[in-house]
Amino acid sequence: MLKRLQWRFMAITMSFLALVLFGTLVVTYTASTANLDRFVDSSLERVLNTTTPTRPYIGVSTAPNVDETIYGQRAVVWVDIDESTGEVELNDSAAIIGPRALEEILDAASGDATEGINEDYGVVWRKGPIPSGTRIAMVSTVATSQVRFQQILTSTVVAVLVLIIAALFVWKLSEMVVEPVRLAWEAQSRFTSDASHELKTPLSVIRANTQILEEHLATIPDDDHRWILSTDDEAKRMQALVNDLLELSKADEATIASDAVFRRDLLDFSALVEEACLEFEVMAFEHGRAFAEALTPNLWVNSDHDALNRVVRILLDNAVKYADKGTTITVSLDVQGTTVARLAVNNRAKPLTEEDVAHIFDRFYRSDSSRSRSTGGFGLGLAIAKTTMIALGGDIACASSAEEGTTFTLTLPLDREQP
What we know:
The protein is α+β, with helices and mostly antiparallel strands. The chain folds into three domains: 145 residues; 81 residues, Orthogonal Bundle (Helix Hairpins), CATH 1.10.287.130; 152 residues, Histidine kinase-like ATPase, C-terminal domain (Heat Shock Protein 90). The protein contains nine helices and twelve strands. α1 packs antiparallel against α3, α6 runs parallel beside α7 and α7 runs antiparallel to α9.
């Protein structure tokens, strides 16, 4: 559970950092691209505007008496077409353009379009009027495209490096953030375990004394019998509560160091569920409920037999307790996807509310309709099941509706090397 909390903290933090970094890179790239496009546009306008020099300035920081942002310094080739004579004059003193590229651009410019781009040769062109006719200005975008590619490549490399460094930092930070939670969790688990162990001895003494009194009820006034029997009943309940607390403490400890608490043995999950169903099928029949099974055979998992068996029995016991008489309890075991074993236990009764479903795995939680003291439980069974399954690498979920009934679904990774 603590590892999940740490991974969740890291996932949220890294997602936020990645989003901010990606947004920054997008804004930077967009602004850079806009500047490059504006630089190309201003270079074309410098040639098309006959009141400005047609060639770029070099050797000065800015062009004299002009705005360099408007009149770019990119080399431009242009063609003047004399409308009266039809003569075409190519000016390639600033740059040289290939004949095929020139031919395609002139063909494209012969129509109504005033500007365009030739993707094959990487040339942007624009035409405009001059006193003698029409001028077509052309600028290469190859260098611009290379700059954009290099910016994307550089930004990607920098972003990956930043995310890697950030991930290492965030992982260390997550350990610091989770550490107080881990210490508090361990302290709570240790207190529960120690308190439960301390209660076991006096409860055993109380039960032993009441059993002795029960053996001598004939010598005790009849009016006092009920006090002795009541004391024994409550001592039994306290023993059951102590045992539940010990199991919960063990499951809590396993969430921190599962290898040190629960075993990891290869076991036949199908056989385990089938054996438990045989026992609870008789119990369901005695309580007036039917029992239906649909179990996929030979599903093997790496898990702790006793812990997993306890969880399965908790689910089956709850289903038998809370199902309406005359209804059918359905148990199904199959494969979800290709790597997960899924056990579903469904019973028909008054559906749980949304609040009940949200808190059904909370410790000592009871709903007025389905989890009362009269059933003999303490509200710890499902909490034990949830914590145990998380420690075993699986999970349990609950869904409830009037149409489908209440279903508890247990999931556990399948073993890839089945015998």
